[in-house]
Amino acid sequence: MFKSIIIKIGSNVLTQKDGTLHLKRVAHLVDQIAELHAKNKKVILVSSGAVAAGRSMVQVDKKADTVSSRQLLSSVGQVKLISTYSKLFQKHGMQCAQVLVTKQDFRSREHYLNMKNCVTTLCDNGIIPIINENDAVSVTALMFTDNDELAGLLATMMGSDALFILSNVNGIYNGDPDDVQSQVIRTIGNSTADLSQYISTTKSDFGRGGMLTKCRIAQKTAASGTSVHIANGTKQNILLELNADADQVEHTQFIKGVKYKAVKKWIAYSESFTNAEVHINAGAFEALNSKKATSLLLAGVVKMTGDFKKGDLLKIILENGKTVGIGKAQYDRARAEKHIHDIKYKPLIHYDYLYLFADIEVTV
Ligand SMILES: Nc1ncnc2c1ncn2[C@@H]1O[C@H](COP(=O)(O)OP(=O)(O)O)[C@@H](O)[C@H]1O
Ligand SMILES: N[C@@H](CCC(=O)OP(=O)(O)O)C(=O)O
């Protein structure tokens, strides 16, 4: 039983084969959310489906480029999507709100806290926030990979108990989902194992990121203290059953870690906003990964790239080139260069402002 839940609904759950909205299914999901709301659960909805809904409403010129098509389809389709939700929630005497965001809206801690305040205020007033990426505006490289990334960020930001990611499959399979031999991976922990071996890069008809990104985001969100569940949104009563007793539902669950401190939640999703890098040696990496809370000392720094000031976010890179984390600089680059290799000098990144990416463990 969870008290606060983020529900992410993928395009494929909301649309029929011909691209039109699957009204009966949307209505059933709204009925379930209303029931959860009546039980005093704090529910936040992240809904895809604008582009898919738009596809059934306007004809895109064959010569139009991808960005223009997405802008056209999403801006038309979002109206249809949100008005559908609004009518359905009204039947339950409930109100919902549309919140359209871009990745840029989370770029600094100040912007991040503004977003948190917006969602908190809506929830405090008994309104269901329905959040989607603002596809008409976010067209640059700084886009969310997909709404799974947005939902993960929100779950971490709000400190939600659970994130339900609804797709058109029962969960993550250990092979091709269409192969009868494949089984749903029931639990995923947070030590080492590579899930990419199981997951093909095929996407569902209307989806954006695919299962591999879904899985990476789920793992990252679970590590921040939210229980993550990838389940089939086309199944009857899926939300109610997940909330009542998730163990009884065939789906993939990501075991949650310990909740992060507030600032770490923001750092965890800020990789796109880092301009400088700090390269560290294997010894430093081992120390940072030890059970003991360890800060990054200059002694373990091999080199730095890009300019940075005190308070800037740095990408942490291992000698083999792999990005292993993000952290906030306690002083600028000039000072760091002056004291490089000094074992006693104040850490470049304090543990409280350090976020390390985790690896995954799988149980079928
Ligand atoms: N091992 C796997 N287990 C489950 N689904 C997989 C796997 N490999 C690829 N997929 C595909 O991933 C799709 C779901 O991802 P995505 O298209 O992003 O969905 P959504 O639109 O629901 O976000 C499934 O429909 C399935 O075709
Ligand atoms: N923002 C887009 C959805 C993009 C997306 O992430 O789609 P999906 O992979 O189906 O969750 C829309 O509303 O159409």
TrEMBL record:
Domain of life the protein comes from: Bacteria
Domain PUA positions: 276-350
Compartments in which it is found: Cytoplasm
Coiled coil residues, start to end: none
Key words of the record: Amino-acid biosynthesis, ATP-binding, Cytoplasm, Kinase, Nucleotide-binding, Proline biosynthesis, Transferase
Keyword Repeat recorded: no
Family: Belongs to the glutamate 5-kinase family.
Enzyme class: transferase
Designated name of the protein: Glutamate 5-kinase
Role this protein plays: Catalyzes the transfer of a phosphate group to glutamate to form L-glutamate 5-phosphate.
InterPro entries on file: AceGlu_kinase-like_sf, Asp/Glu/Uridylate_kinase, G5K_ProB, Glu/AcGlu_kinase, Glu_5kinase, Glu_5kinase/COase_Synthase, PUA, PUA-like_sf
GO cellular component assignments: cytosol
Entry EC no(s): 2.7.2.11
Principal location class: cytoplasm
Binding-site positions, ATP: 8
Pathway note: Amino-acid biosynthesis; L-proline biosynthesis; L-glutamate 5-semialdehyde from L-glutamate: step 1/2
Reactions catalysed, as given in the entry: L-glutamate + ATP = L-glutamyl 5-phosphate + ADP
Residues annotated as binding substrate: 48, 135, 147
Single biological process term from Gene Ontology: L-proline biosynthetic process
GO molecular function, one term: RNA binding
